[in-house]
Amino acid sequence: METLHNETTISLAQLLAHWQGHRGLTRRVIDAFPEDQLFSHTIGGMRTFKELTMELNSMGATGAHGIATGEWKELNKLPGAAELDVNPKTKEGILRLWDWSTDYINNVWPQVHPTRLQETDKAYGQWEGPVWWLLYYFIDNEVHHRGQGYVYLRSLGIEPPPFWDR
Amino acid sequence: METLHNETTISLAQLLAHWQGHRGLTRRVIDAFPEDQLFSHTIGGMRTFKELTMELNSMGATGAHGIATGEWKELNKLPGAAELDVNPKTKEGILRLWDWSTDYINNVWPQVHPTRLQETDKAYGQWEGPVWWLLYYFIDNEVHHRGQGYVYLRSLGIEPPPFWDR
């Protein structure tokens, strides 16, 4: 664990607010899709935005849980998730998963130890790195795919919500 | 300025490496565009990737300079930039600006004070917020627009460099 002498860059509470700000914007992008196009529209052989969103749904609450506890589980194995429909067939079902994850992240975050982000862990038993790097991967991956959702929406003639509004 | 009691989330050196990792990937995405499509290809009335890249070029070195010094300047007003072509008409010219900025960021970053990210500043005299928030905006905006570049490349039948490779 690296020692950071007298550096105060960003707090855990600020990181949570930053992540949740992005998540709120991503929710509005999901919601901006017409139901059918969310499940069918694609460009250049890429995944639909439903599929991209489900990738994000697989790494939100589970990622926060892993950061907070060191346990890396699938979504339906998290406490309270047994009743969740993790294979939603509607926009409403996707958004329900999203909102459940948002609450889960808020609730588990206070368990993150003050120096946890400087530890090394292996996310989902596969990706090894500093915990801050894992957290930033979850956030950056969301921004990356959401940016792709912006192009999908524009190509459908729909104006996406503004990027800066979180 | 918020006091962060005993929290070590991410160091300034790690933030620099994180940003530069993203910048290296974005450079490969720019380079993956055929010269003509970089300046002409668009989807749904959006800007070309050249225009998106030039937005990023306007906020890289200048953003790091602002974070390090509190001075917010246009690119061609930075020390050593007077000879730069800040309106490039070729991919080579865009990449030259990119590489110049990458070096500039590396060189100015050690001037960032250990508690600077918890200060509030007004970037370019316009956007006021915590300095960490300004830094994250620069990075996130790059990830956002680069994700759009991925769709442009896919729509041209070109495989983009992998997202995780930084």
UniProtKB/TrEMBL annotation, chains A, B:
Name of the molecule in the record: Uncharacterized damage-inducible protein DinB (Forms a four-helix bundle)
Keyword annotations of the record: Metal-binding
Sequence similarity: Belongs to the DinB family.
InterPro entries: DinB, DinB/YfiT-like
Residue numbers binding a divalent metal cation: H145
Pfam families noted in UniProt: DinB (PF05163)
Gene Ontology molecular function terms on file: metal ion binding
Entries under SUPFAM superfamilies matching the protein: DinB/YfiT-like putative metalloenzymes (SSF109854)
Lineage: superkingdom: Bacteria
Gene3D superfamilies given in the database record: dinb family like domain
